[in-house]
Amino acid sequence: MVDVSHKTGTHRIAVASGRILMQAETLVLILAGNAKKGDVLGIARIAGIQGAKRTSDLIPLCHPLALTRVAVEFQVLEGETPGIRCEATVETVGVTGVEMEALTAVQVALLTIYDMCKAADRGMVMTDVRVLEKHGGKSGSFVARP
Question: 66: buried, middle or exposed (CB in 10 Å: 19+, 13-18, 0-12)?
């Protein structure tokens, strides 16, 4: 791991997002609460939070962090390409950023949606996972271009 002992702790925030695209019928199943495995978005939210908290167990050389906030939100995408957009916001006060935790939260939440709905739609596609913004630390702020 990189030595971060010389760094000063600051308030750090990262926001990441991603999408899972699916058949319209699968989205209806999720929104109606009729998936065989239960409340898809509720369980995916908890899974995303767990993923953020366990990032250092999953990513080699990633520092374990004391997170002060993890929020996982979903937006329904209707229209020509139905799906669900996931956005995770992670915060800490520490010496290293939380981008990896935000990205992990999004991926784990999307994977959970896939797992809970794969019996209905094996063609779901996870896409566009990226860091939208980060704040804090020596490098300051980053906001992705739209």
Answer: exposed
pTM for this entry: 0.95
- DSSP H helical ranges for the chain: 24-32, 40-53, 55-58, 99-117
* Eight-class DSSP state of 63: P
Tell me the catalytic residues: 115
Q: For the chain, how many helices (H) and strands (E)?
A: 4, 5
Is the pLDDT assigned to residue 8 strictly greater than 90? no
pLDDT per residue as tens digits for the range 19-51: 999 999 999 999 999 898 999 999 999 999 999
Task: State the Cα–Cα distance between residues 49 and 106, nearest whole angstrom.
Answer: 9
In this structure, what token pair is assigned to residue 53? 């908290």
